[in-house]
């Protein structure tokens, strides 16, 4: 029996870990410590009084795979099924994704036809690259940049345009620095196990965790959902978990409780807050890696250094609302390769996948412009001194140039998301291995979860919370 477990950080990772702890009878008490005044971390939705919803963080969650099923199982258990807004594979938002290249929007090729023909901005049919891919030898290195991996296997053009853009739309990062092994383990494993991405995709690229689909996950398969959100925005997930934890009576939820220092004690840890201390037998840290690093005692070197070396980038998220229907194309949105514009990463056409979030009873268009990421400082300067007005101006000009929109937005919101996305650089897996073995060797009562380590998607982070609880208590959910 574990007496007290402290969960540090009340983002979706810390909340998910607390949720799973509550599901077992083996824990007497859970204390969740969050520095800010709200739970949810980057899951942050603005609900305007007229009914419109705007997302300042994640906006669509994928149901696919073990981690996707796992989140749906939790969402069902929390009673959120009636709130779900699914987007099916046949929806235009799933079919149409654009790239903005050479000052033009290009629909990304899809389906057999798209692969057989030359589709600009590409100079030749992609089917050739895919056919040749099967013959490319497998790499002997234990990690590689995403750009180098795809350049080698699929050609420089695809790597420069499509892969570069994809990395900006998932990691707000630079494909030339990010690790293929840590960012796209499925692709890395496909090469290692099958010798090819194409064969890996067709034959499978290794075992994945076993997560039986509950009723909601089964529904997502039957109705072929590509992604989903919630009627009142994704922030409903942390809100529902918080409510669930409160009702359980076993979790002490503390907001405005920044963890300052952690020190070892006879039975576990003493956690120092601004106004007092908390004792715990075990810590599950769902803090960003650098925040944990600065709280650990000096006895935890080299862990401190390895955590400190996990960098993050800043993204400016600009939500815009326009009157009327102003888009020249319809789809999920467009991404922009770094060769086209370093500062503007892409634009999401939120009204297309989720029209339910528009202001009711009138026609409006909601867009989100994402800027900065790995290029933030170079393009916009120091995030601590940048002016929100300047970011808004850059975003509205981008919408004007790239989408030909001539009207000004009727409403806007600029969120400067500082250090919001960790960057798994080449060799990241080695840091993770070293950290986990240090913890094991020294029997530290500490688990590491959250977006800093093994996946940044909401699904990955929820799953990291579940895995930590299972390993700690030796249970299986
Ligand atoms: C703009 C944007 C768009 C995204 N889009 C998607 C998407 O479409 N789909 C998807 O799946 N994912 C998306 N993501 C990724 C996903 O949202 C995040 O990776 C995930 O929410 C991270 O959760 P976390 O709990 O690990 O971290 P966080 O949300 O960062 O939580 C950490 C918590 O710790 C708290 N904290 C920090 N320091 C201390 C301290 N000293 N003491 C106590 N508490 C502390 C923080 O306040 C925070 O609440 C997006 C992220 C961003 C930023
Ligand atoms: C089309 C434009 C997009 C922009 C701009 C964009 C920005 C952006 N996204 C993240 C983080 C994530 N995005 C994820 C999924 C995702 N993002 C887009 C498009 C844009 N993102 C799409 C079409 C998708 C769905 C992918 C798919 O269905 O194949 C995810 C989750 C990935 C997963 O494994 O589930 C994350 C994480 C950031 C930080 C960002 C800021 C620039």
TrEMBL record:
Protein name per the record: Protoporphyrinogen oxidase
Pathway: Porphyrin-containing compound metabolism; protoporphyrin-IX biosynthesis; protoporphyrin-IX from protoporphyrinogen-IX: step 1/1
A GO BP annotation: heme B biosynthetic process
Domain Amine oxidase: 12-473
Function per UniProt: Catalyzes the 6-electron oxidation of protoporphyrinogen-IX to form protoporphyrin-IX.
GO molecular function terms listed in the Swiss-Prot or TrEMBL record: oxygen-dependent protoporphyrinogen oxidase activity
Keywords: FAD, Flavoprotein, Heme biosynthesis, Membrane, Mitochondrion, Mitochondrion inner membrane, Oxidoreductase, Porphyrin biosynthesis
Ranges that cross the membrane: none
GO cellular component, one term: mitochondrial inner membrane
Co-factor requirement: FAD
Membrane topology of the entry: Peripheral membrane protein
EC number from the UniProt entry: 1.3.3.4
Domain of life: Eukaryota
Family assignment from sequence similarity: Belongs to the protoporphyrinogen/coproporphyrinogen oxidase family. Protoporphyrinogen oxidase subfamily.
Keyword DNA-binding (UniProt): no
Cofactor info, note text: Binds 1 FAD per subunit.
Pfam families listed in its UniProt record: Amino_oxidase
Main localization of the protein described in the UniProt heading: mitochondrion
Cellular location(s): Mitochondrion inner membrane
Subunit composition and interactions: Monomer. Homodimer.
Catalytic activity: protoporphyrinogen IX + 3 O2 = protoporphyrin IX + 3 H2O2
Organism: Mola mola
């Amino acid at each position: 029996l574990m007496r007290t477990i402290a969960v540090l950080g009340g983002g979706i990772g810390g909340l998910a870990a607390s949720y799973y702890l509550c599901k077992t009878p083996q824990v007497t008490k859970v204390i969740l410590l969050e520095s800010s005044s709200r739970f949810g971390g980057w899951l942050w939705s603005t609900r305007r009084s007229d009914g419109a919803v705007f997302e300042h963080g994640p906006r669509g969650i994928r149901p696919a795979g073990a981690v996707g099923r796992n989140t749906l199982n939790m969402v069902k258990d929390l009673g959120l099924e009636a709130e779900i807004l699914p987007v099916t594979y046949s929806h235009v938002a799933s079919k149409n994704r654009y790239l903005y290249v050479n000052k033009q929007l290009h629909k990304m090729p899809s389906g057999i036809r798209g692969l057989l023909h030359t589709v600009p901005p590409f100079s030749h049919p992609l089917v050739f690259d895919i056919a040749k891919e099967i013959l490319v030898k497998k790499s002997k290195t234990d990690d590689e940049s995403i750009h180098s991996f795809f350049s080698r296997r699929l050609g420089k053009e695809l790597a420069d345009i499509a892969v570069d853009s994809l990395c900006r739309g998932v990691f707000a990062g630079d494909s030339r620095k990010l690790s293929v092994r840590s960012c796209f383990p499925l692709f890395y494993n496909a090469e290692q196990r099958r010798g090819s991405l194409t064969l890996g995709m067709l034959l499978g690229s290794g075992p994945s965790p076993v997560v039986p689909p509950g009723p909601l996950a089964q529904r997502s398969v039957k109705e072929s959902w590509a992604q989903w959100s919630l009627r009142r925005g994704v922030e409903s997930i942390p809100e529902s978990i918080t409510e669930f934890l409160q009702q359980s009576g076993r979790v002490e939820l503390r907001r405005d409780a920044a963890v300052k220092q952690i020190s070892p004690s006879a039975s576990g840890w003493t956690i120092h807050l601004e106004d007092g201390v908390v004792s715990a037998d075990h810590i599950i840290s769902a803090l960003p890696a650098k925040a944990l690093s600065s709280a650990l005692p000096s006895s935890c070197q080299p862990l401190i250094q390895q955590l400190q070396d996990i960098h993050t980038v800043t993204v400016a998220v600009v939500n815009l609302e326009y009157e009327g229907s102003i888009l020249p194309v319809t789809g999920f949105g467009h991404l922009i390769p770094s060769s086209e514009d370093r500062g503007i990463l892409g634009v999401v056409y939120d009204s297309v996948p989720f029209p339910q979030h528009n202001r009711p009873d009138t026609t409006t268009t909601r867009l989100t412009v994402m800027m900065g990421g790995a290029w933030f400082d170079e393009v916009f300067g120091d995030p601590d001194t940048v002016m929100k007005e300047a970011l808004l101006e850059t975003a509205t000009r981008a919408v004007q140039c790239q989408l030909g929109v001539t009207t000004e937005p009727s409403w806007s919101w600029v969120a400067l998301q500082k250090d919001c996305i960790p960057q798994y650089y080449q060799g990241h897996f080695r840091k993770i291995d070293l950290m986990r073995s240090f913890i094991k060797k020294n029997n530290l009562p500490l688990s590491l979860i959250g977006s800093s380590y093994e996946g940044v998607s909401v699904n990955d982070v929820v799953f990291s919370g579940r895995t930590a609880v299972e390993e700690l208590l030796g249970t299986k959910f």
